């Protein structure tokens, strides 16, 4: 007996393998995006599920573009989809287009007509909708339902030849107008659309509907388990009906799982496209976007996204996952992987008045406190420094152990420093701290004379390099009624000062800014002349197990 997995889909597959439902065929899944936008984190869930399921069983997974709608292909979307799947770490078995199967789908439609299982209907879209019935009332049969097979074949041929305008006629499956499942009440399976298709050009003016096309696509590719989201559950009887009426041997089976919903996130290509088109964001890959391109540019790692998808599991009921879990996975992944640097985001100048004017020392600092193997680096220290403004309080709050007049703190990997005097401008703003250091307390001297409670970081003013750092808050917020609105303060750009080594960063390189969080050199905007960094995630987690 196979072990019961928390992933119910794997339990279904285990049973199918035991029963030899598919003979000796391999487990075969597919990821079927419509190339009408960039993929988002919800798609990442589907990608991970389909590809890792195939991997687990030594099977295969196809990338199949669902292009049964005759819209112009957007090469940008196709390229982005493939880049995203590869970035997540997966490689498809075959890359296919649903439109490659139009001939077969047409043959299948003919087969249904010849079996008396499909008919040409002249009702308008509205009439079809109005005669469909409701959950409590059966639908009404179309007056065209009993056309002869010959008549249907002739009319369908005329539809194909382009004799009719869009919407003038449709092909409907002849199932059951009284079915408790409305999808089974003679659904439309082919419609007329006089439109150019990116793949088939003007060969066709009739196009198959998704519910008819999808099972055929799966069957042709010998998909065994066709995984989709819950909204297709009521369509499954139609999926099965199509393949059964076509006498397809060992037909694939559709399995539904709950789509991923995340707090502070809208996952709809249409919604995200609107944000791009109206300029709310700088593009599909704006680091605030929940697109895979966006989170990649933001600095999230494929490992973190895969870990997240694994942790949330596969559910049968819709729910909303807290985005802080995704952030937690990012932190966990970066913790031992990236080097730390000292960066001051909101600088306050410090002068060590008893430190020699022209002296500079090199202080040795570990690159990653959690991972000794990452070694150390030397960081310059001299008389003038920057510290974070929030590391100083003129009148300290209770339990505030950082800089305030009269208090001594440790400057990370350097000396004990005492704040003596506060310099203010005409408006009374603190502009500089005058401090003294104790030469005895150099961090590598083994000094044990006394202890201090606070440790703060610093950057040497003379050698500091300026950074442009983009700090992020959630792009999408929810008001008290649960309505999503766009946060007008989701991006804040600050001028920061960093230790000199950051000027050698490479675009796409990630760091921990000591005591602050994780940051990435922006893959597009970072250059030698302008060191642009994006905040990936802060250090502290609001997520509780
Ligand atoms: P959107 O409404 O954002 O365009 P879609 O479902 O129409 O989403 P498709 O390109 O048709 O987008 O989806 C490709 C695959 O990704 C489908 O199998 C779909 O079920 C799955 N998918 C889409 N959104 C999610 C989600 N939030 N969680 C899990 N899977 C998803
Ligand atoms: Mg869609």
What's the short version?
This protein has 545 residues and is of the alpha/beta class.
Would you mind describing this structure in some detail?
It is built from twelve helices and 29 strands. It is an alpha/beta fold. It has a seven-stranded mixed sheet with strand order 12-27-28-29-23-26-13. It has a seven-stranded mixed sheet with strand order 21-18-19-20-14-17-22, with no helix packed on it. It has a four-stranded antiparallel sheet with strand order 4-5-6-7. The site of adenosine-5'-triphosphate (ATP) has 15 residues, from helix 2 and strand 8.
Calculate Rg over CA atoms: 31 Å
* Approximate helicity band: 10-25%
| pLDDT < 50 runs, ≥5 residues | none
What is the residue-mean pLDDT, rounded to a whole number?
96
Hetero groups in this structure are: adenosine-5'-triphosphate, magnesium ion
Q: Helix/strand-derived class?
A: alpha/beta
Strand content: 25-35%
Specify the oligomeric state: single chain
The dominant shape is elongated
* Main sheet specs: 7 strands, mixed
Q: Please report the distance between the alpha carbons of the first and last residues.
A: 33 Å
Please work out how many helical segments DSSP would assign. Answer: 12
Q: What is the number of E strands?
A: 29
Task: Give the spatial strand order of the biggest sheet.
Answer: 12-27-28-29-23-26-13
């Amino acid at each position: 007996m196979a072990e019961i997995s928390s992933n119910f889909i794997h339990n279904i597959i285990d049973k199918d393998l035991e029963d030899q439902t598919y003979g000796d065929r391999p487990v075969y899944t597919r990821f079927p995006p419509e190339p009408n936008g960039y993929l988002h984190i919800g798609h990442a869930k589907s990608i991970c599920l389909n590809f890792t399921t195939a991997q687990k069983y030594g099977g295969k997974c196809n990338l199949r573009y669902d292009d049964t709608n005759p819209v112009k292909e957007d090469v940008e979307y196709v390229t982005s989809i493939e880049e995203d799947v590869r970035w997540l770490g997966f490689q498809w078995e075959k890359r296919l287009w649903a439109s490659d199967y139009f001939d077969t789908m047409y043959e299948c439609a003919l087969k249904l007509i010849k079996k008396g299982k499909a008919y040409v209907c002249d009702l308008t879209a509205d009439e079809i909708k109005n005669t469909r019935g409701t959950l409590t009332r059966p639908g009404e049969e179309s007056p065209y339902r009993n056309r002869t097979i010959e008549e249907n074949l002739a009319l369908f041929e005329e539809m194909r030849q382009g004799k009719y305008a869009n919407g003038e006629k449709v092909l409907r499956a002849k199932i059951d107008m009284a079915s408790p499942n409305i999808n089974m009440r003679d659904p439309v399976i082919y419609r007329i659309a006089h439109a150019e298709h990116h793949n088939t050009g003007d060969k066709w003016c009739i196009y198959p509907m998704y519910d008819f096309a999808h099972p055929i696509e799966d069957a042709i590719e010998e998909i065994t388990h066709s995984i989709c989201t819950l909204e297709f559950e009521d369509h499954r009887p139609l999926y099965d009906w199509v393949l059964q009426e076509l006498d397809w041997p060992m037909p694939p089976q559709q399995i539904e799982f709950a789509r991923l919903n995340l707090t502070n996130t809208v996952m709809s290509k249409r919604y995200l496209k609107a944000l791009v088109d109206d300029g709310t964001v700088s593009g599909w890959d704006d680091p605030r976007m929940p697109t895979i391109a966006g989170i990649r540019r933001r600095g999230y790692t494929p490992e973190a996204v895969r870990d997240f998808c694994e942790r949330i599991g596969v559910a049968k009921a819709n729910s909303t996952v807290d985005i802080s879990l995704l952030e937690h996975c990012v932190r966990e992944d970066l913790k031992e992987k990236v080097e730390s640097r000292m960066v001051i985001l909101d600088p306050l100048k410090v002068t060590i008045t008893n430190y020699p004017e022209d002296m500079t020392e090199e202080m040795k600092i570990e690159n990653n406190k959690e991972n000794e193997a990452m070694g150390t680096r030397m960081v310059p220290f001299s008389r003038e420094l920057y510290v974070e403004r929030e590391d100083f309080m003129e009148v300290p709050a209770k339990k505030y152990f950082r800089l305030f007049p009269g208090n001594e703190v440790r400057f990370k990997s350097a000396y004990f420093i005492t704040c003596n005097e506060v310099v203010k401008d005409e408006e009374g703003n603190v502009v500089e701290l005058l401090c003294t250091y104790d030469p005895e307390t150099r961090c590598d001297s083994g000094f044990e004379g006394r202890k201090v409670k606070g440790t703060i970081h610093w950057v040497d003013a003379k050698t500091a390099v300026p950074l442009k750092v983009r700090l992020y808050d959630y792009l999408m917020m929810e008001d008290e009624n649960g309505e999503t609105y766009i946060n007008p303060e989701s991006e804040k750009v600050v001028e920061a000062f960093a230790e000199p080594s950051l000027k050698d960063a490479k675009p796409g390189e990630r760091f921990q800014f000591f005591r602050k969080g994780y940051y990435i050199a922006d893959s597009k905007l970072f250059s030698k002349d302008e060191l642009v960094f994006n905040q990936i995630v802060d250090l502290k987690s609001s997520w509780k197990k």
